[in-house]
Amino acid sequence: MGEIPMNQGQCIFCGIVTGALPAATLYEDDATLAFMDINPLADGHCLVIPKAHCEDLLTAGDDVAALVGQTTARVARAVKTALQPDGLNVFQANGVAAGQTVFHLHFHILPRFVDDHFTIQFHGNPTSNREHLATIARRIEQALP
Ligand code: 5GP
Ligand code: ZN
C-alpha cells in the first residue's frame, strides 16, 4: 500500500491512525484499524475505520468499503467470542442528519444484551404501497454506478 492520505490536525481518527492521539487498539492491518469507542454504550463497543481518511461510506471507494467491511465482520465475531453478548449491532452514520459526529468513516460494533434498555426504533410508514416501493426501487437502480 502507498502512502496513506491523512487529514492531520483536523481529524481525530487520523490522529489515532498516526499515533498522535491515544486509543485502545484491538486490531490493525495495512488498510484498517479497530479501537475501543471512548464513550462506550456497552463493554466492547468499538469502532472500525479505514486508515486512509475518507468522510463516510458514500465517499469511500469500493476497495475501502470492502476492506472495512471485512474487518468489521472479523472484529464482530471476536467481540461475540470474547464477551458473549446476547446480540450485536453494527451501524454507521453518514452526515449530520444521520447522527454522524466524527467525519472519518467508521463502523460501530455494539454488543447487545437482552436487558440493556438500548433501543433503535424504526417508525415505518404503513401507507407505503407496492407500486410506490417499486418506483423508488427503479430510481435507486438507475442511480447505481
Ligand atoms: P458517530 O456519532 O460519528 O457515529 O460516532 C463517533 C464515535 O466516535 C462516538 O461514539 C464517540 O464516542 C467516538 N469518539 C469520538 N472521539 C473519540 C476519540 O477521541 N477516541 C475514541 N476512541 N473514540 C472517539
Ligand atoms: Zn481522518
Describe the fold and architecture.
- The mean pLDDT is 93.
- This protein has 145 residues and is an alpha+beta fold.
- It contains three helices and five strands; from the N terminus they run H-E-E-E-H-E-E-H.
- The chain is globular and about 50 Å long.
- It has one domain (12-119): HIT family, subunit A.
- It has helices spanning 12-18, 62-83, 130-143, and strands at 25-28, 32-36, 46-50, 87-91, 107-112.
- Bound molecules: guanosine-5'-monophosphate and zinc ion.
- The site of zinc ion has 6 residues, from helix 1.
- Guanosine-5'-monophosphate (5GP) binds at residues 12, 23, 35-39, 93, 99-102.
Concise summary:
The chain is an alpha+beta fold and 145 residues long. It is built from three helices and five strands, in the order H-E-E-E-H-E-E-H.
Topology, please?
Elements: H1 12-18, E1 25-28, E2 32-36, E3 46-50, H2 62-83, E4 87-91, E5 107-112, H3 130-143
Antiparallel strand pairs: 1-2, 2-3, 3-5, 4-5
Bound molecules: guanosine-5'-monophosphate and zinc ion (ZN).
Zinc ion binds at residues 7, 11, 13-14, 53, 104.
